[in-house]
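Problem 3 from the worked examples.
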Amino acid sequence: MKYLKWIVFFALLICGHLPACLAKDEPLTDVAAKKGVLDLRTSDLNGKPVNLDGEWQFYWRQLLWPGDSIVRTPDYVPYPSLWNKIKLHGHALPAEGYATYSLTILLPRNRPHLALLMPDVYCSYRLFINDSLLLSNGRPDTTEEKAVPFWCTHTVNLPGNTDTVHLLLQVANFWHTKGGSYKQLFVGKSEELRLGLQRDRAYDLLLAGCLFMGGLFFFGFYAFGSRDKAILYFSLFCIVYSYRMIGTSLYVLHSIFPGLSWFLTIRIEYLSLTLGVALFSRYFQSVYPKDVNKVIVNAVVYICLFYSLMIAVLPPWLFTKGIMPFLVVMFMYIGFAFYSCIRAVKYKRVGAPFALMSCAVMLMVFLIINLHYFQIVSTDKWIVFFGYVTFFFLQSLVLSHRFAFALKKAADEAEQGLRTKTEFLSTMSHEIRTPLNVVIGMAHLLLRNTPRKDQEKNLNVLLFSANNLLSIVNDILDYNKIEAGKINFEMIPMDISSIAQHITGGLSSKAVEKNIALTTDIDSRITHKIIGDPTRTSQVIYNLVHNAIKFTEEGAVNLSIQVEKMTDENVTLTIKVSDTGIGIEPEKQQLIFDRFTQADSSTSRSYGGTGLGLAITKRILELQGVALNLRSEPGKGSVFFYTQQFALSNEPVTQEAQHDLVAEPDMQLQNVPILVVEDNPFNIMVAQSLLERSGAIVDVANNGEEALEKIQPGKYRLVLMDLNMPVMDGFEATRRLRARGVTLPVIALTASLPAEVEKDVNSAGLTDIVVKPFNPDELLRVLLKHLKN
């Protein structure tokens, strides 16, 4: 597969820097100690450090001190070597016990200043150099009660005034399943050894800090953002495993805090491994649940938890016996994870190539660490450091790809949800508008039948409530459309003065009801139409004026349109609505522009409304690059205003006729044959009653197919066509009419908003649109407009 070359690359990068593998007991230098003497007089000590491997004098169950007389012939054992792997006089030694190692080193006369690198042993030591105690880890003794274990790595300078160095090393172990030495000692240039140890400690500290902070980052990301369990498991794994960088190998933490209890730190050291493997297993299962065998993962986790329980409650000499079987389980699991990554890559899971490469790197890192632990290979610290960094970097890429994928999926789902919401609201709008059309239409019909005073009052309440419900539905749909970014702006000539007069004229009845004055102040310099969207401009001004009337109990509301700047091509207008209403406190002036929000709950209860009007107004203006401003003082009133630039049209403003309707509106459609195409019987009754009252001759078709059968040349002068009908809808019926060459006006009757169907209406060849529920006067105006053409 294409990612195999990257895995091979990492393997060669790491393994290419390893020295040749050596047998555990084979020295890494050409010179080895023999019979307790290491002759380095012919060695060049200016180069790399020299290890002190070879045959050391060995005194089992003796802690010799400088000057002690030797009462028996010493044994010779390979150094380093564990006691439980040494046989003396045909008998295998136990791990528990104490002993003394001794070595004499012969140094060349011309040599640099030398130092000794002394690692930890199992589990405490004292090092005497030329009869002087220079190093110790813990306190070795002949009984467990007096001895104290401790692990750390040190360097110590060798005497420079002698060519012979005598090393006396006391070692005691009563706590671990292994005893004695297991790491090599080195002699080399003092400065290089010290700098090398400091550099390796810096690697460990840097890596621990990176893992710990990375773990905290991912944990915070999980806690305050994504609730992905994979991120949680990985964050905990990083935090737990970071301890191994400073609590193993060189034991950097012990050198910083020499008073730490060995019995505590060895438990944390083992727990960081077992819990780290358990957390990584869960993490890997969470990332690729379809490719990881759940039974195997659960088995590994239970083994880790069982071993962790042993570590927590048992003494070290017992739980340390389980480390070898656990390492076997760990390597088997890494192999299983590697196989699972291959499956994930095969099935193209998110981030699988990076997971595969990271598992390959981790497998090699663990292999190197364990081979180094067992003295089979030696390697530089930076190689392991690089391996760990590469592993965690690749795992971070896995999580990044996973998060990006989840984010994209969530965005797609949100977009789909928004589409579904829009479709739902559109459907609900249609379903609500259809019965409202009947309610409003019947209310108008009843009001025109000269009802009694009490009936007229009740009908007006009914009509007001129905119109109020319609306004709420329109506001919700408008805001939803704005949020979805589906609002478009026309650029056609419009008469801003006429728009203002129509709005104040339409709202004058509300002002009269509240006994407040509603005035209009329009700049006389506005003599030409401006280019803009008359529908949205009307909506903005209407909302501002309506809002001002709503919150004004006495005084006046004024709509002002003033010219700020005018050129031959453009005009800048300031549109201002002032009132003497309740006003708004300064801290709440921005709040009122939020959706579904008013200044406070008492305002909402007193004045009603959804709180969408100003939010819609503000968003409509913002989409045109215009800011809505507010000046207000509680108890004195408010001023809403905005300044907008418009292109000027060449078309002059004309005085519209104030009476589109003749003196007797009931006779305007006298003997006009009209076909109403509608499937809802109640809507048919309303439309038929209104039209017949105006003198029209009304015929009815229940669907588009029936309408096509009824329409004959010269039979009708106009068709009112519902758009959503069974058998054949209004769009298809109109298309077929136009295909037959029929040119009579076809007016769409729809409960959908014009913007939602405008494109289909135009393509089908419909002449105009009347939105349900319709005002009888508005319907009549549209009909007369097209009958006159």
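Problem 4, a separate protein:
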Amino acid sequence: MSIIEKYTRVLELDKILLQLAEYTCCEYAKNIVLNIKPNTNLAIVKEETTKTNDALYLASHFGTPSFSKMDNPIDHLKLAQVGGVLSPRNLLNIATILRQVRLLQEWFTQCQNHQNSLKSIFEMLIPNKELEKRINTVFLSEDEIDDFASEELLNIRRKIKQLGAKIKEDLDKMIRSSTYQKALQENIITMRDGRYVLPVKAEYKGVVSGLVHDTSSSGATLFIEPISVVEANNDIRVLKSKEKAEIERILAELSAYCGDFADSISRNFEIVICLNIYFAKASLAVNMKAMLPIISNDGKIKLNKARHPLISKDTVVPISIELGYNYTSLVITGPNTGGKTVTLKTLGLLTLMTMCGLLIPVSDDSVISIFDNILVDIGDEQSIAQNLSTFSAHMTNIVSILDRADAKSLVLVDELGSGTDPVEGAAIATAILEQLRERKTIVAATTHYAELKVYALQTKGVMNASCEFDVKTLKPTYRLLIGTPGRSNAFEISRKLGLSESILNAASEYIAHDKKNFEDVIDGLESSRQDYEEKSAQLAKEARELKQLKEDLKNLNQKAIDEKEKIIEKARQEASRIVDNVKLDSQLLIDELDKIRKEKDKENFSTLATQAKSQVRGRIDKLQDKANPVVARTNEDYVLPRKLKKGDTVLIVDIDKNGVVLEDQTNAKTVLVQAGIMKSRVDIKNLRLTETKKVNIKGKTTRTISSNKTAKANMELDLRGQTVEEAIMELDMFINQSILSNIAQVTIIHGKGTGALRSAVHSYLKQSKYIKTFRLGVFGEGEAGVTIAEIK
């Protein structure tokens, strides 16, 4: 086992590859996956991870393509090339491969519009539909050849069936014959050695003349082939031989055909396996919630919320770690079981996974480097057989690491310098770190030595980090804190567990003064860090609240601006409508005056002039009313002539809309009224009873509509500038009025705009019982800005 394999095993890359193998389609692909080795070539690593990422993209958008179970056909195809005959199983395996090639090519057609690094691989697939079809038409299963595999085989099997039927007919006669019934053990026809026979009692052997082919285990039954069917059985045996020969000919022909395409089929198989592995990597990435990081070879590592992929997703605590930017060495301290070793393994394993072309479980903007060497000393390497202590085993490993470490190496060491005298161990550990720093090696090491914490504080290019520990709960939080040295917390843990203060005080006296001061500094730093984090969290919360408040105010302001624009536009349209109506009535008045002027010579001119004067005065009053956009909506002196009843038509004064009362008036101050499609409770003072008649509508409901035969109907309704609710109310009353006026076709103007008003109008017309058909306007009618509706 090479050194690199040893280190990948320590980091448990083999377990990741085992998980990956579960997503492959066959043993051949599984073996390839289990033998994947980390690659040190940056270009190849980037290419492989990009292809995995593209497979993930295609799978998430179009579904993962299915892969069939198949065997490696290369050896069988070589046999076919030299004239060998393949078995039905081997031929069906080739058909499976060809079917897989065809299905993959068909699947990829839906992805053609997406730029993808896998495109060139898919384009290398060469389907062979003719050979695939030819194999599938020959076999019903691995053990059965189809009758229609050839015309000769069909004829042979037809003759075998005919002879078999004739033999059964002759033997049936014997079974039913009283002469033979007493001699038969059972009234059945059976087969021995491919020949039809009868089970005859041993004592009646002479009754049935023929050939004995077998006996029962007890000897009481003989299986005799009657003389009358011997010739037919012989014919069947001859035909069976011909059938076998014909099947062998068919298999040889198919094998030769496969041999002609052996190279193409082999290439197709390799391409299918290649694609299967990329999509297996994508499936593993989905399971791990992994993504593609930024990849380099400059030694820079920045893992955001990295998760160890072999720890349960429900329990793993994400860590963020940085190396190779402002410092090349990271000294991680903290209590036992606090997550130091997991941090090292996460860092090493994710690097190895990337070098294997896999995506890794990190968050956005993560950066990872590839290395020529990943050198690891994690775990107890003590060897009893070699008579090595724990310290000796670790030092043996460290020596091996130092022999290979350079600027292109990542070194991960757990408990550096442990297993010997603390003073000497700390000195050796410091020297090792200094040696690696001088070589510009990227290093992450864990330790309990305070001397290494001091070294990290005083040395450029070396950074302290610690695994956080909650003294109150005596549990680690598994958070990695960069820039802060950790404490062993032995005194706090012992105090929580009940060790007396006298012992703790005595122990404190034994600690060197400078070390005690250093621990006090660490306490101060830790306290300051916690205060900073609390204040930072509070400030972040307030910043989020202020941002949300600012966004809400912005939305309210925009909403007010939009409402203002709508009101102005509606007022503009209403003014335009008023002007148009006033112009029309003014023209009618002018026409009337012209008519009177022409009749001035008539005898009754004086009478006509008086009448016209009265009419003109009335029309002028109406013009003034029309020209005044502000109309008094209330009449404080108005009193309902009676209590309202269900079905009454009323005027809703404040919105100047007609509505239908949906319930009898009680002593309440409000009543339920429907105006168009809207139902609401309206104050009694806001309603005016109008002359109405009830009109039965198709269905179970009775609608009440105003009867005003003298009202002049309008064939056009302009809804522009209105909200959807206002427009539908207006449209509902407009359709009612059109029905009363016997108008067959109306024009509804809704404008183009966003299309929301048009959609609402079309939805209403589609559901209305009174609309026969409707369509958008054509050129000259207003096109998509209007809808033409035909009333039933």
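Solution to problem 4. Residues 294-499 form a domain with the Rossmann fold fold (CATH 3.40.50.300). The longest strand covers residues 462-470.
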